[in-house]
Amino acid sequence: MKAFKWTIAAAFAAGIAAAAPVPAQAQTQDTIFIPLLSYRTGPFASSGIPIADGMRDYLEMINQRDGGINGVRIVIEECETGYDTKKGVECYDSLRSRNPVVVNPYSTGITLQLIPRAAVDRIPMLSMAYGLSASADGNIFPWIFNPPATYWDGASVMVSYMAQREGGFDKLRGKTLGLIHLDAPYGKEPIPVLQAMAEKYGFTLKLYPVAAADMQNQSAIWLNIRRDRPDYLYNQGWGAMNPTAVREAIRNNFPIDKLVGVWWAGGDDDARAGGAQAAGYRSLSFHAAGTNFPVIQDILRHVADKNLSRVASRERIGENLYNRGVYNSMLMVEAIRHAQQLTGKKVVTGEDVRRGFETMNLTEARLKEIGMEGFAAPVRLNCADHNGHNNVFVARWDGQRYVRDTDWISPIRDVVRPLIEDAAKKYAEANAGWPRRTETCDQRS
Amino acid sequence: MFYREAGQYKTTYKADMAVFPLVQDRIGIIAILAIAFIGVPLLASEFIILSVMVPFLVFALAAIGLNILTGYTGLISLGTGAFMGVGAYACYKLTTIFPGVNIIVWIIVSGFFSAAIGVVFGLPSLRIKGFYLAVATLAAQFFLQWCFVRIPWLYNYNASGAIEVPERTLFGIAITGARATPEVRYLVLLSIVVVLAWLASNLVHGRIGRSWMAVRDMDIAAELMGIRLLPTKLLAFAVSSFYCGVAGACMMFLWYGGGEANDAFNVNQSFNVLFMVIIGGLGSLIGSFFGAFFISTLPTILKFGVPAIGIPLTGAFAEHLTHVMVGALIIFFLIVEPHGLARLWQIAKQKLRVWPFPY
């Protein structure tokens, strides 16, 4: 009987303790707070862990090597989302009061949820090459940034690549492109562009949706793929869905060099799952893999050597998705630098960083300065274009690592951009009361 | 000493049959309502309101719905998530087709759509019982979720299949959409929950509730006493789905504010609500609130509350630890009190009545 009383007492105590507002961390003068919404648990952890490590390590490296961004230390805090929308929004709500200068939701579902709130809370959101493609329209989404390319750009690059392989866009007529995708907003994003392009170039588009619950059980879908015999397969998958797709392609004798993943289907573990036969699997990418860059060397020296990294083993530094995390953090740091330049302040706010993103101009020279020569393509944003629709290349898995397989391929802008502006307008109409852009546009410094 | 009925004489049948026969209980409920309506919006931070109170209320409503079906009528259902989804999609369609009508009206009306669907899937309940009925409602879950993905009309042909919640106002104050403050959303939701919980309390304490319980305890005996099984069971399905539908609409419009709707109403959600009802206490309205608090908000409190009181936990480790702790607590409560938290509450009240002289 005593146990009951104790449990009730304990439950009440826990409830009261938790009801106390979360104390705001003391904000010392010279820090910038960057929360990282990451996921190291759940069904998508295999993709989430390398990205989380990469994002964290780059920021840590800036702190260790330079003492922060122009001397302002970065306060880094991870919040675990498990790729779950509810938990992600909870993370956002718990971190919001601490004045983050930029938020990375790292999940399309969480991004969709937070898009309407960014303008209200005045915190810019970086959804790097994920999230809502339409949010590339800065006139309607002044607070959302999704460089360097949208899923729609990716889909158009896939079609260009297909034309390259076949020997011209006129050869696409009569071909079949299969889209194997996660049956969720993220997976469905490329459908409208692929449909528009299928009509334009005369190829057939077949859809193979994979429910989140069946990510690891795709045999039924691959039966359909065997029956339909598509010429190419574009994989818009995530997490455990990708290695399964690679394995199934091998098992079903689908030519592995014609299976091309979107950039998020480019994890080292995704391809490794297929064994030796997975060599030749391809994935779009916008940055290089490997450690052969000054920036990654700096991370090894200043972070990994000092045991400040959370990576499971040193070899994982330089993996494709790890480097993507690094790229993501680099964009944030560069936006903060631009904001510092623009305002002349050292400790910038979310509003300043929004302006920093809008004036972002990463030239070849700048990339070289930050140790990323040959790592990524230049990125230039402006007030209307929050994406840049930058070039993408196709990477090939050689059995050990991803290597660059093609030149930079530019997205088919004249197909994508009108669709984006149209979708953005529709979004604003569907969300009655969508605020008009009142933020002024800065001149590039 | 303070909590006892001594000296409180009932002079009418009405007073004797009241839901809260004791003065202290009535004072208690008024105090709780005062705290909920005045104290929380004034004192709690936005995080507490949005991440603790709002989910708690939404799930309390869903748990009341399932409790009517499972706890009071004895019909097990695994389709709760889908019935919530019906409410959310109905509300979305209604408010986009008729934007002029107040959103609160549509939130309530969407419950009727859910009720209609619930009745259709409740039809087999006359013939099948127990685990078999659970499987039939599971079919409803999968079928409806399939519809949410495959029928683009339901989400207005949105490219990413997401629901977008437009801004709607009440007396000029935004209650949905990004500009609605957490306090306003919370108060609207709280009002809906209070009214519906009061209705549910009247239903289960009255003739309808008694016939549900008769069916639950022994349906053949109930039939012999003149209770018609089919209408009674279908009514339970309808009322239950109504509550779930309203909960789903509230979830999308007052809590989530749009987004990946089809994924939010998956089978895990059904199981979650079922666990809330079992942990909270089958056949108890207060149990629905306890269960909702336990299952839906305890993980949040552990994740953010434990670091807040000075125990540093980060990222993935906190997440794993939360899973372990919640799991252990569920097992613990089921062992010490298989009848749920509501039964513990009752025992506590009983003990208070005789305190400090237990004999």
How would you describe what is shown here?
The complex is a heterodimer of chains A (445) and B (359). In chain A, helix 2 (45-66) crosses helix 11 (294-304), helix 3 packs parallel to helix 4 (108-121) and helix 12 packs across helix 13. Chain A has a seven-stranded mixed β-sheet with strand order 6-5-7-8-9-12-13, sandwiched between helices. A two-stranded parallel ribbon of chain A has the order 1-2. Chain A has a two-stranded parallel ribbon with strand order 3-4. Helices cover 43% and strands 13% of the residues of chain A. The N and C termini of chain A lie far apart (72 Å). Chain A has 445 residues and is of the alpha/beta class. Chain A is globular and about 60 Å long. Chain B is mostly helical and 359 residues long. Chain B has two domains: 1-8 and 18-43, no CATH class; 44-354, ABC transporter involved in vitamin B12 uptake, BtuC, CATH 1.10.3470. Chain B has helices at 13-16, 23-43, 46-72, 80-97, 103-122, 130-150, 182-205, 207-217, 219-224, 229-256, 261-264, 267-280, 285-308, 315-336, 341-354; strands at 169-170, 173-174. A two-stranded antiparallel sheet of chain B has the order 1-2. In chain B, a hairpin with a 2-residue loop joins strand 1 (169-170) and strand 2 (173-174). The interface between A and B is large, with 61 and 57 residues.
